[in-house]
Amino acid sequence: MRTRGRLGDRLLHAYTWLIIVWLSSPIAVMILFGFNDKKSKSNTTWQGFTLRWYTELFDISDLTVALRNTLVIALVSTVITVVIGTMLGIALGRHRFRGAGATNFLVFAAISTPELVMGASLLSLFVSGNVPRDANTIIIAHVLFSLSFVVVTVRARVVGLDPSLEEAARDLGATAWGTFRQVTLPSIMPGVLAGAMLSFALSIDDYVVTSFVNGSTVTFPLWIVGAVKTGIPPQVNVMGTLIFGVGVLIAIASAVASRRRA
Question: Carries keyword Protease (predicted)?
Fold first, then answer.
């Protein structure tokens, strides 16, 4: 029995590592080919090691503009999403009001709605309303599909919040705003930050919804898809590597902060 148990554990460990390698392999290829010394039009075969593309990262002007558009849209949509989503999450997690059930249903429906459906519906809305499609419509779209994720994470944090802390603050003379700023907000901040990071990540890598509402505005994912026919330059791999690296650093910092709070 012990031999069978050990064999099962080894197989489970091997299977787990196989899944990890499989999921990590595209990222590893992207990082590797950011150092590829491209000597021909193709960037799909290894041709030597170089740091050239890191020094020439912004030499392709339209790619640089696309990356800048992506980052600006992600930052703006994240700020709007966090503000609205935090207020809605607090309301749903703390108060019982008429329509709360319908609101919860809509929140989860937005998460489960296919991107194709959301993109097509937003396109129909903007076209029927004669709204010009540009960076603003992309921001509106990103806020709509990211909002539910922020609401869910904040609501989960609010549900577990001890109401006696806020009652104690009010008993000590704190105003409603002071109680929120000094007690409620710090307590739910992990949920707010988690929602913000998720919203930012969703905005950066979105292609489907953005392709419906972008108009003439080009984002990083749209540029990459458009460049497939002519060949993806190594700078794309470098930019992807840097974005991935920043995400890893944020995740590590968040984990360290959580351990310190614990």
Answer: no
Give phi and psi for 182, each to the nearest 5.
Answer: -100, -20
Query: What single-letter amino acid sits at 251?
Result: A
Q: What is the DSSP letter of 131?
A: P
Crossing angle of the two packed helices 234-261 and 220-227, in degrees rounded to 10: 150
C-alpha triplet 37, 238, 61: angle, nearest 5°? 95
Computed from CA positions of residues 120, 126, 130, 131, in that sequence, does the dihedral angle turn out positive or negative?
A: negative
Q: What is the pLDDT of residues 74-108, one digit of tens each?
A: 999 999 999 999 999 988 888 777 777 788 888 88
Placement of tokens 């709007």 in the chain: 80
Q: What is the pLDDT of residues 8-23, one digit of tens each?
A: 778 888 899 999 999 9
What's the pTM? 0.85
Distance CA 46, CA 73 (A): 34
Question: Which residue in this structure is represented by tokens 């992506």?
Answer: 70
Which string of DSSP letters, residue by residue, matches 200-238?
HHHHHT--HHHHHH-TT---HHHHHHHHTTT---HHHHH
In sequence order, what are the beta bridge partners of 49? 36
From its phi and psi, is residue 217 left (phi > 0), alpha (psi between -120 and 50) or beta?
Answer: beta
Distance CA 204, CA 102 (A): 30
Q: Return phi, psi of residue 49, to 5°.
A: -95, 140
CB 233 within 8 A of CB 85: no
The secondary structure of residue 26, as a DSSP letter, is H
